[in-house]
């Protein structure tokens, strides 16, 4: 794809009337998913700011049963710009808090809601972790069983849309979601981290998150 065609992707996605849907998300096999994405530079372009907002809007729509059904969306907690065929280091993460045992909504709707420009893991635990149910991906239309081995805890540096630098410490599910999305900007798919010979192998001390 030429530079002008790539430009047209971001132009199309950031049009005021456009809502990102599953047709905008590229699937495994597309070379953009295997490329190392480019850092964004500050100040951001209007398109780069709008793209982040549209990515977050997609995640909110995907988690809203009415909008998800209307738009035919798979539920998602994270999205990376390369999944939209835009090779930039930008991720959106939206992790909802569960209802309590009585079914009441949580005080805080989200345990993590953030857009990260140029995110980078700067420290991590020795301990590994994996989700008991494995991982899925909006760019992968098949189930890939197995433990996706990641760090149990990570420290991430990133920039917000205003160019302010932030450092965030994450553990458990939130850490896994952010690592999954950062993998996308580094050309790594979640199944690259599954042990091919023994997909459900548990290393010593590995945390399996239910």
Automatic annotation (TrEMBL):
Recorded GO MF terms: metal ion binding; peptide deformylase activity
Active site residues of this protein: 181
CDD domains assigned to the protein according to its UniProt record, in alphabetical order: Pep_deformylase
Cofactor notes: Binds 1 Fe(2+) ion.
Catalytic activity line of the entry: N-terminal N-formyl-L-methionyl-[peptide] + H2O = N-terminal L-methionyl-[peptide] + formate
UniProt cross-references to Pfam families, sorted A to Z: Pep_deformylase
Cofactor(s) required for function per UniProt: Fe(2+)
GO BP terms in the entry: translation
Keywords on record: Hydrolase, Iron, Metal-binding, Protein biosynthesis
Record-listed Fe cation binding positions: 137, 180, 184
EC main group: hydrolase
InterPro entries: Peptide_deformylase (IPR023635), Peptide_deformylase_sf (IPR036821)
EC number: 3.5.1.88
Similarity remark: Belongs to the polypeptide deformylase family.
PANTHER family: PEPTIDE DEFORMYLASE, PEPTIDE DEFORMYLASE 2
Function in brief: Removes the formyl group from the N-terminal Met of newly synthesized proteins. Requires at least a dipeptide for an efficient rate of reaction. N-terminal L-methionine is a prerequisite for activity but the enzyme has broad specificity at other positions.
Protein name: Peptide deformylase
Organism: Streptococcus sanguinis
Higher taxonomy: Bacteria, Bacillati, Bacillota, Bacilli, Lactobacillales
